[in-house]
């Protein structure tokens, strides 16, 4: 290599390999043997081969110098490109690290979301079960609840139309309790049992006394039986239904007394009617005799 290029600042990483340049020139020289000009020079005896070789050498030196200058000229651009590539590698590495971290964070977030979904599903299931139990519990409480007012009315009030409504409500509660399949396992049903039994006995006795008093009215000779039957028995038939459901012995007792009383009443009325007919006939016969 010519010494005039020794002072050019060429980084070691971008050193020009002149061996490659020489190889290229050698290849050029080999290819040039086939060139017509060179062939003509060998064939032309008048051409001074030394001068021609020197000329060729000068041309090759010029070409070499041109290529070297071009390499040197592009070296700075190659340095910039190399730095840019390094910067790009650094940025890409940083981006890769960031994306990897972001991917890990997304994985953690995904796991948290799954945990929240499972927890939410568990809460919804518990809420559904609780609402179902609450509805059943409300139904049970409504079905077995005996209010203090109902107890007072049953025990203290006289038998009238309002009392009939209270008895119907009591009968509904007792029927509901009786129909429960697991009443032995429900503690509240065990607690309410004695109170319902007490109310059953009190109600049955009050109804019994009420109907017996009405039956006594039928024994009066001047009583209006159809009116009593309508206003006292048909009107309060739900009380008798309660006795049939809750105290059948008392219901049978009232029925027998009612049958006996009505039979006696109609027997008395029939006998009275018969005596009256007989008396009319006797009076008529006596009148005819006169």
From TrEMBL:
A single GO BP: endocytic recycling
Keywords: Coiled coil
Presence of the UniProt keyword Transport in the record: no
Phylogenetic lineage: Eukaryota, Fungi, Fungi incertae sedis, Chytridiomycota, Chytridiomycota incertae sedis
Cellular component, GO annotation: cytosol; GARP complex
InterPro entries xrefs: Vps52 (IPR007258), Vps52_CC (IPR048319)
Organism, as annotated: Anaeromyces robustus
Any Pfam family hit: Vps52_CC
Gene Ontology MF terms: syntaxin binding
PANTHER family in UniProt: SUPPRESSOR OF ACTIN MUTATIONS 2/VACUOLAR PROTEIN SORTING 52, VACUOLAR PROTEIN SORTING-ASSOCIATED PROTEIN 52 HOMOLOG
Domain Vps52 coiled-coil positions: 71-243
Lineage: superkingdom: Eukaryota
Coiled-coil residue spans: 39-66
Identification of the protein by name: Vps52-domain-containing protein
The UniProt record lists the keyword Coiled coil: yes
């Amino acid at each position: 290599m010519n010494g005039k290029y020794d002072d050019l600042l060429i980084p070691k990483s971008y050193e020009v390999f002149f061996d490659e340049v020489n190889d290229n020139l050698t290849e050029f020289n080999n290819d040039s043997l086939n060139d017509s000009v060179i062939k003509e020079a060998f064939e032309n005896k008048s051409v001074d081969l030394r001068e021609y070789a020197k000329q060729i050498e000068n041309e090759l030196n010029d070409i070499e110098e041109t290529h070297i200058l071009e390499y040197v000229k592009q070296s700075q651009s190659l340095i910039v490109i190399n730095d840019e590539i390094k910067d790009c590698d650094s940025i890409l590495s940083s981006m890769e690290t960031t994306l990897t971290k972001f991917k890990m964070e997304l994985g953690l977030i995904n796991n948290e979301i799954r945990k929240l979904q499972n927890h939410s599903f568990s809460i919804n299931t518990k809420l559904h079960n609780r609402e179902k139990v609450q509805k059943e519990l409300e139904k049970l409480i409504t079905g077995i609840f005996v209010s203090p007012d109902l107890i007072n009315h049953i025990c203290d009030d006289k038998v009238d139309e309002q009392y009939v409504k209270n008895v119907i409500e009591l009968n509904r509660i007792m029927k509901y309790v009786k129909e429960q399949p697991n009443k032995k396992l429900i503690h509240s049903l065990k607690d309410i049992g004695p109170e319902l039994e007490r109310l059953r006995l009190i109600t049955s006795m009050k109804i019994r006394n009420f109907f017996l008093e009405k039956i006594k009215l039928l024994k009066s000779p001047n009583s209006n039986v159809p009116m009593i039957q309508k206003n006292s028995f048909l009107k309060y038939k739900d009380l008798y239904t309660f006795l049939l459901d809750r105290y059948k012995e008392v219901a049978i007792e009232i029925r027998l007394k009612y049958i006996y009383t009505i039979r006696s009443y109609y027997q008395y009325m029939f006998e009275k009617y018969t005596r009256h007919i007989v008396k009319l006939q006797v009076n008529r016969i006596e009148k005819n005799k006169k």
